[in-house]
Specification:
With 599 residues, the protein is of the alpha/beta class. The chain has 21 helices and eleven strands. The chain folds into two domains: 194 residues, Dihydrofolate Reductase, subunit A (3-Layer(aba) Sandwich); 351 residues, no CATH class. Helix 6 packs antiparallel against helix 18 and helix 6 runs parallel beside helix 20. Its EC number is 1.5.1.3.
Length: 599
């Protein structure tokens, strides 16, 4: 199904035009329209679809709208646009417009007017649907209009999105003012409305399989870590952590070799494309169209990699230490509260609104954590020691381990949000604008040209940009592994001579193979997590990772302490966490506009 975006300026009565033209001149609205409709990834271009009257309302010297593929719908198939071939096309229906191909791949399709085209698009069909309406709502003064947009919100199936989501969709290059603005003699507000059916996309089969692999990777890593440190008596949490995180460095070379062997991409082209994407992301003031046209931001990129390494290292070290002090089920349950921390931090970072149902979910999850931590600790009383496993295989300090995990969980939630804000490549924007867009205004936007280059990526050794799926996050994961190997190696002898962790190699091959299993499962989990963070965002990803609680509890029961793992409080606490996350998950997919989606 083709996804469409409507971009429009309208009064509170949905008035959009007077005598075939815009009845107002709002400069911020025009800059906003130009930025959103131009903004597309390297090698792609947006399409603006309009009726004949909207086309004719644009002054001739500004036709076609630059750096966008202009599609004009007219009943007359011979209607003459009087523009250069390839810059605009005439079609006789919306269906025909959506089937048009362009020499530059189309990124997003915007309906920009007029009223009848808005109405047709909003009705939708089996092969297309409007999932966003970006509106500049003109609230004062009262403007007399003779053309109106359909009152689509009254039909149901639409929900008002938050300012935070609008900011995320618009992306960098234009600062969206929040709330009602008073400029140019008008009061207006930038708004976004989302179709309820336009829930976050899971990335198809690849996304679902990746999610399953990530869950299994975490579960296997958790169980093997406890098995090695308790049953095999190899208690070297820092060294194991060091090996696992250094192993991240294998993922990018493997991905690069896979693409080289299975596609027409060359390694040179892939690396050049990554260089270009990173340069444009970290130095976005002027977009680059080819590698070498601007210097690669080495210092910024190095700082990003180091910050990410520390952001994941500190919580992970706490987790590795806690796994030997508390049960895997408790540690996993508490660790998964990072989704709530990610949500709370996201509210502040992205300007989301507090909502009662989500606050109830947070309180419920917190209560669940308390039940798991203190109820589980109380149930594991010394009197029960003789009825369970050997002392050497039982968690030694559950309360301390659980508290360490809680601190790690907060840090990990913070890391996920910061990754989304600073590290993930933008997925770009949706829509906004007006119906009868009289655009002598596009002239004044030359100095506000925020658009990205539309030069397409060719084969051979030319830069492949945007990079293939998951290649960029796998590069970051790999470099985090390299940074771990370089920066943290010095702590192994320090911990040894300080008597904190006396270094010793594994005493047998079974322990070596088990540690290798921890490393490989850790690579799967962390690589999958980085990809999912870019696809789904921190909140949805964290909510999904909650399922590890169930998987680890089941595996702990089957392969660990048996039914002794299950206590009334652990079951009640885990149930509370599951219910709370269920509330958030339902809310996200039923009312996706209120939350952060991938970007």
């Amino acid at each position: 199904m083709i996804r469409l975006s409507i971009i429009v300026a309208a009064t509170t009565a949905n008035g959009i035009g007077k005598n075939g033209r815009l009845p107002w001149h709002i400069r911020d609205d025009l800059k906003y329209f130009a930025h959103v409709t131009k903004n597309a990834p390297e090698g792609k271009q947006n399409a603006v679809i309009m009726g004949r009257k909207t086309w004719e309302s644009i002054p001739e010297k500004f036709r076609p709208l630059p750096k966008r593929f202009n599609i004009v719908i007219s009943r007359d198939p011979n209607y003459n646009l009087n523009v250069a071939a390839g810059s605009a096309s005439v079609v006789t229906s919306l269906e025909e417009a959506l089937k048009l191909e362009h020499e530059i791949p189309i990124h997003r399709r915007f309906i920009i007017g007029g009223a009848s085209l808005y109405n047709e698009a909003l009705q939708g069909k089996a092969d297309y649907q409007v999932d966003h309406v970006l509106m500049t709502r003109v609230t004062a003064p009262l403007v007399d209009c003779d053309t109106f947009m359909p009152d689509f919100e009254a039909t149901g199936g639409w929900t008002q999105a938050s300012y935070g989501e609008l900011v995320e969709l618009v992306g960098s290059g234009f600062t969206v003012p929040e709330g009602v603005q008073k400029k140019d003699g008008y009061e207006y507000e930038f708004q976004i409305t989302r179709s309820v059916s336009a829930a976050p996309q899971l990335g198809g089969k690849v996304g679902v399989l990746l999610f399953i692999a990530t869950l299994l990777g975490f579960t296997i890593e958790s169980q093997l870590t406890q098995y090695v440190q308790t049953n095999l008596h190899y208690r070297q949490p820092f060294f194991i952590f060091y090996l696992v995180h250094t192993s991240f460095s294998i993922i990018f070379p493997l991905h690069l070799l896979y693409l080289s062997a299975t596609t027409n991409y060359t390694i040179t082209g892939l690396i050049s494309g990554l260089q270009l994407a990173i340069t444009n992301h970290l130095s976005p003031t002027t977009k680059s169209t080819s590698p070498g046209s601007r210097p690669f931001p080495k210092f910024k990129f190095a700082l990003l990699v180091i910050a990410m390494t520390m952001g994941i290292t500190v919580p992970a070290l706490l987790w590795f230490g806690a796994i030997t002090l508390a049960s895997v089920s408790d540690v996993t349950a508490i660790w998964n509260t990072n989704a709530f921390f990610a949500y709370l931090i996201s509210i502040k970072a992205f300007g989301l609104k507090w909502e009662t149902r989500k606050m109830i979910a947070v309180v419920l999850a917190t209560a669940g954590v308390v039940m798991v931590v203190y109820g589980g600790a109380a149930a594991s009383s010394p009197e029960d020691a003789d009825s369970v496993l050997e002392e050497s295989t039982r968690p030694s300090a559950p309360v301390v381990g659980n508290l360490l995990t809680l601190i790690a969980s907060f840090g990990y939630g913070l890391y996920q949000v910061m990754y989304k804000i600073y590290a993930a490549l933008p997925v770009d924007t949706e829509s906004k604008e007006t119906s009868y867009q009289s655009i002598p205004e596009d002239e004044e936007l030359n100095e506000h040209d925020f658009s990205r280059s539309t030069a397409s990526s060719a084969g051979g050794d030319e830069a492949i940009n945007p990079p293939p799926f998951a290649l960029y996050p796998n590069l970051l994961t790999c470099l985090m592994g390299v940074a771990t190997g370089v920066l943290l190696s010095v702590f192994i002898p320090i911990l040894h001579y300080a008597g904190i962790e006396s270094f010793r190699l594994p005493s047998n091959w079974w322990t070596v193979f088990s540690i290798a299993g921890i490393a490989l499962s850790g690579v799967v989990f962390n690589s999958g997590l980085m990809i999912l963070l870019g696809m789904w965002g921190p909140v949805v990803t964290s909510v999904g990772n909650l399922l590890t609680t169930v998987l680890v509890l089941v595996s702990d029961t089957l392969f660990g302490n048996g039914m002794d793992t299950l206590t009334f409080w652990s079951l009640l606490g885990c149930s509370a966490i599951v219910v709370a996350f269920g509330v958030l998950a339902y809310d996200m997919f039923a009312h996706p506009s209120d939350d952060l989606t991938s970007h």
